[in-house]
Amino acid sequence: xxxxxxxxxxHDTCNVYLLVTGTDAVAIDFGSGSVLDxxxxxxxxxxxxxxxxxxxxxxxxxxxxxxxxxxxxxxxSTERDLFADVGTHWQTRVxxxxxxxxxxxxxxxxxxxxxxxxxxxxxTRIGGVDVHAMPTPGHTLGSVSYLAELDGxxxxxxxxxLYGPGTVWxxxxxxxxxTALEGAAAxxxxxxxxxxxxxxxxxxxxxxxxxEPAEAIAKTRSNMQALVDFRRDEPWDLDAWLRRPxxxxxxxxxxxxxxxxxxxxxxxxxxxxLLIDYGLDMITGLPVGDDRSSRRPWLASLDALRRTYGVDxxxxxxxxxxxxDHVAGFGLLHEVEGTEIWAGESIAPILRDPRRYxxxxxxxxxxxxxxxxxxxxxxxxHEYELTMYPLPGHTLYAVAIAFEADGxxxxxxxxxxxxxxxxxERTEVLNLQYRNRFRFDDFVxxxxxxxxxxxxLMISGHWEPRAVDDRYLDMLLAKGEELARLxxxxxxxxxxxxxxxxxxxxxxxYRSAVAAGESREFEVExxxxxxxxxxxxxxxxxxxxxxxxxxxxxxxxEGGGQATVRFTVVxxxxxxxxxxxxxxxxxxxxAFGQQAEALVDVR
Length: 603
Known about the structure:
Blueprint: E1 2-4, E2 7-11, E3 15-21, E4 24-28, E5 46-51, H1 57-60, H2 63-68, E6 72-75, H3 81-84, H4 86-92, E7 116-117, E8 123-126, E9 129-135, E10 144-150, E11 153-159, H5 182-196, E12 201-204, H6 213-230, H7 238-243, E13 246-250, E14 253-256, E15 263-267, E16 272-276, H8 302-309, E17 313-318, H9 324-327, H10 330-337, E18 340-344, H11 348-352, E19 371-373, E20 379-381, E21 384-390, E22 399-405, E23 408-412, E24 417-422, E25 425-430, H12 442-453, E26 457-459, E27 466-467, H13 470-490, E28 505-508, E29 511-514, E30 520-527, E31 534-541, E32 547-549, E33 552-557, E34 562-570, E35 576-587, E36 590-602
Parallel strand pairs: 4-5, 5-6, 6-7, 11-12, 16-17, 17-18, 18-19, 23-26, 29-36
Antiparallel strand pairs: 1-2, 2-3, 3-4, 8-9, 9-10, 10-11, 13-14, 14-15, 15-16, 20-21, 21-22, 22-23, 24-25, 26-27, 28-30, 30-34, 31-33, 31-35, 32-34, 35-36
Helix pairs in contact: 5-6, 12-13
């Protein structure tokens, strides 16, 4: 069916749109692949590229045919594993006693080769057509829509964001968390973003072309908003959520109330902004999975910075720590906005190489770091001076960021404390996670740092800003001291001291990939758990048939001290996923067994 001279639609398990240039075409979504049997009907000799709006089978169950025909397959960035590595998803997806209700099992049955992910927020020439990709989560969290100028009209290919005036293809797809309906609120926001683009024609994956988009979008938005509000005690003003995401802490310091974790914008009179943390923007519900497709970096709040506060450039972003909810958006900021990423020296290596570390809440990919900042060294950004200080506790790899805004001394502390209320008075719970490498006195040290810096205001990752006084600082110090006392009382430290983590070894890298027959070096960090100097022996345990050189290392270490030893490993032929290595530790004449592991994929 011809829609315009340059646009055809093939009706299949979904609408397959063909953007035609001469005798070539770019397909948006692919259905069962039956379009390949009808190319002549559409005046097309070949399809060069396929752009997927989302991962569901009705959109792409025929992609194996596309790959076999040599087409380039482009997919949404957060859903690429559901195309290129869907076999792993099927093997690891929880299916017993699950509370994750996403329709990620409506995925392809087999992997397909992916040429690339669509560059979001950018216009890219693909197969002779200029296409702009914009995130439009709702039907799936990773869904994108495509905008293209064809035959003098602005076309919006919106996937399953809407079906027609007032309707969507699926309501059940909007549910992700148990009892939640996160996709409904995201759909409202995405509809607003599409409406802002003022398309002349909306082309849904199911349903007919929509010739009056503004009316259709408004009606669908109204119905979806009603569904959102039906499930809440109070209506959710999603227009304000999108248009006014920032609230003023001071005139030049803004708090983003829509992000998870909370990000802050420090405004310069030059028109630039510096962001402290930038994870999951414009959140409509907490993540319910742990795979890439359960996380959606988004830049939806930035328009409000420009429109309301006159920001012309998001110049710098700084993390308080490495956790994904604080850094997920850094890659997009860097690629789309040209934002420089500045990170504390303890955080930068983790952002750059997350697979090296056995830590929770890591982002899936390496993130750029343009500048690694030494602790305690002031750094200048326009009219501001900012200083990073080590802030272990919630995680060993964290910083407090001190600066002054509008005459107030501010300290950004990330997730160091949880906010809470007791008898109507706000208190704090120390945000302790052992896997983040907690040490007994970390919260004592942070409380002493707060005393030394004496801020007027502390801003945190998930709670409202807190005015600081001596009573509050006394409380934090007392809590830190009590936490340290409890750990020292509970553990047999006079006999064996592996610290709060309870392990005497760590292997780096924790995750790695190596070709069969190729050598890989591993470092093992070991701890002497005794108060006296002794020899630490490390045996690297490898799968049968693997070579390890040497088989054992020994090193003399002072009481309570640490050392690093190195091994070279060579796997034999044969593919393996997550082969396990272990470090077996002996201290003096006492064996502590296999204290650490690492995972290796053999290609």
